[in-house]
Amino acid sequence: MLESQYKMNLIKIGLKISYYRKLAGMTQEELAEACALSAGYISQLEAPNCYFCPSLKTLFLIGEALHVSAAKLLDIED
Questions:
Q1: In whole angstroms, what is the distance from residue 8 CA to residue 5 CA?
Q2: Are 46 and 28 in contact (CB under 8 A)?
Q3: Residue 17 in contact with residue 73, Cβ under 8 Å?
Q4: How far apart are alpha carbons 58 and 53 in whole angstroms?
Q5: What is the pLDDT of residue 50?
Q6: Residue 51 and residue 7 in contact, taking contact as beta carbons nearer than 8 Å
Q7: For the packed helices 39-46 and 2-23, what is the interaxial angle rounded to 10 degrees?
Q8: Could you give the 3-state DSSP secondary structure of residue 19?
Q9: Phi, psi (5° rounding) for residue 51?
């Protein structure tokens, strides 16, 4: 049960990243470049069938590039 909730939370974080990226009018490639990450890495984070756990450093970088707080990316309750 805990494992499935963990996976669901990772999916929600990825969906938040995707949502704010699209809201900012950025492609995965543009976000990756802004964060000095690969586009493949961003793709993995956003993929709803991947359970990829980003580091806090990565979340802060992504949040900064998208002009949102890392806390918003982690707010999976809404």
A1: 5
A2: yes
A3: yes
A4: 10
A5: 83
A6: yes
A7: 120
A8: helix
A9: -110, 70
- Phi/psi for 68 (5° steps) reads -135, 160
Phi-psi region of 67 (alpha: psi -120 to 50; beta: other; left: phi over 0): left
Q: What is the C-alpha separation between 20 and 71, in angstroms, rounded?
A: 13
Please give the Cα distance from 27 to 31 (Å, whole number): 6
The pTM (predicted TM-score) of the whole model is 0.90
pLDDT at 68 over 60: yes
Q: How far apart are CA 49 and CA 26, in angstroms?
A: 22
| 44's tokens | 């993995």
Please tell me whether residue 12 adopts helix, strand or coil conformation: helix
Q: pLDDT tens-digit profile of 10-63?
A: 999 999 999 999 999 999 999 999 999 999 999 999 998 888 889 999 999 999
